[in-house]
Each structure stands twice: as structure tokens, then as C-alpha cells.
Amino acid sequence: MGANEVINLSGIMLNESNPRTISEVKLDNLVDSILTFPQMLRLRPVIVGDSSEILGGNMRYRALLIVSGMTSQAIRQKLGELVEDEGKKKALGEYWAKWLKKPVVEILRAENLTEEQKQEFIIKDNLAYGEWDKEQLASWDKAQLEDWGLNLSWAEESSGDSGGGEGAQVISTKLTVECENVEKLASLFEELQKRGFKCELS
After folding, report:
1. Rounded to the nearest 5 degrees, what angle is found at the Cα of 112, between the Cα atoms of 59 and 190?
2. Are 146 and 152 in contact (CB under 8 A)?
3. Is the sign of the CA dihedral 89, 77, 14, 120 positive or negative?
4. Which runs of consecutive H residues, i.e. helices, occur in 105-181?
5. For site-directed labelling of 85, which of 36, 152, 159, 181 has its Cα 20 to 30 A away?
6. Cβ–Cβ contacts within 10 Å for residue 189, how many?
7. Which helix (H) or strand (E) is 98 found in, with range?
8. Which domains does the chain have, with CATH numbers?
9. What does the pLDDT look like over 138-159, one tens digit per residue?
10. What percentage of the chain's residues is helix, strand, coil (to nearest 5)?
């Protein structure tokens, strides 16, 4: 892989076989996140294969497609709801007004991968191995963390305010599933997520 490229938004395409999904609410949150912090797109470029099909960053690309369909006025109005600092609000409005004239995206090409390696990348790119240090995050601004998209429901569960009295515990049951191929695993993973189960791949 080489350096980042900046290309027209229309120069790459969604990977229809990507097993990751996103709710409308979370997609809206991602749009808000991109509008207020576009520099993140340079730090986390969309990864594409030889055919310009996305291997990593489908959701960021979908969010950019939504932004590209907005007017400058709509973006400024949205920024008015999201950003308090007038200077930052003005700078962001000017950035997106210019971007709308030529919608682009930063990409990084992952070339010469086999189909198996592409599938492996798609799955591994979406795995979350680490965990949050709750004690460290306790000193952070909770509202800001939630604005940035961090789900703090686990913090509420661990605080003892679950309604079960002092010392109440959250009980979880885990199910391990083994599949003979990635396609079947991806299909099962998506189905379980749709049914509301918390799923992790390892």
C-alpha cells in the first residue's frame, strides 16, 4: 500500500458483500461526526481493492454520500446544532461549501490481494480486540464521549444503578459458533445482530 490518494467520490463503489450493517440513527451520528471533524477522513482513509471496491470504510463512504446530497445551507444549519464555537462553525461551513463543488474522498489502495485475503481483511478490519478502561474514562466528559459516538451503557450497568439493589450484577451468557467458511459466518453474524444480540468475531 502506498500513500493516500484524493479522488472523486464517484471513483469508488460500495462493497455489496460486506457483512457489516449500520442503523439509520448510527449513520446519522456518523454524518454528524464527519461534518464536525473532516480531518478524521484523512487519518482514516477508505481502503479500496484493485477494482476500486471498498474493503474498509463502507460506512464512512455512505456518510459522505449523504453529505454530498446536502446543500450548503443544510450543512450550515446542521453545524449550528452541533458546534458552539462561532469561528469553528464558520470554518467548517466554508470547508464543506468548497467540498460540495467537488466531492472527494481520501483512499488507500490495497493492491494485489487474493479474494480470500480481501474477505479476511473485511472481517479483521471490523474486529474490536481492545476494551475501554472505565476508570480512565471516568475523568472524561461523559456528554462529549457520547457526542463522539461512544456507547456508555456499560458504565451505567457497572455503576450499580440497575434497579436490582446494592451489589446487583449484570449476568451475561456467551455462545460460541464455529463455521466452515467466512460467508456463512458473516450471514449468521448479520442475522444475530438484526435480532438484537451483541456479537463479536474472534
Report:
1. 35
2. yes
3. positive
4. 115-125, 134-137, 142-147, 153-158
5. 152
6. 22
7. helix 86-101
8. 1-126 (3.90.1530)
9. 889 888 888 777 877 755 554 4
10. 50, 10, 45
| Cα 177 from Cα 30, distance rounded (Å) | 30
Nearest C-alpha neighbor of 155 from the set 129, 131, 175, 176: 131
**Residue 45 DSSP symbol:** P
CA atoms within 13 A on the CB side of 165: 0
Q: Judge whether 30 and 59 are in contact, CB under 8 Å.
A: yes
DSSP lists the bridge partners of residue 48 as 54, 109
Strand runs labelled E in the chain: 5-8, 46-48, 54-56, 104-109
The C-alpha atoms of residue 34 and residue 95 are separated, in whole angstroms, by: 12
Model-level pTM greater than 0.85? no
Neighbours of 168 (CB within 10 A): 12
Task: Quick: pLDDT tens for 75-128.
Answer: 999 999 999 999 999 999 999 999 999 999 999 999 889 999 999 998 888 887
Q: How far is CA 180 from the centre of its chain?
A: 28
Sheet with 46-48, strands from edge to edge, namely 5-8, 104-109, 46-48, 54-56
In 3D, which of 77, 99, 100, 98 has the Cα closest to residue 89? Answer: 77
If we measure between CA atoms, which residue out of 123, 148, 128, 105 comes closest to residue 20? 123
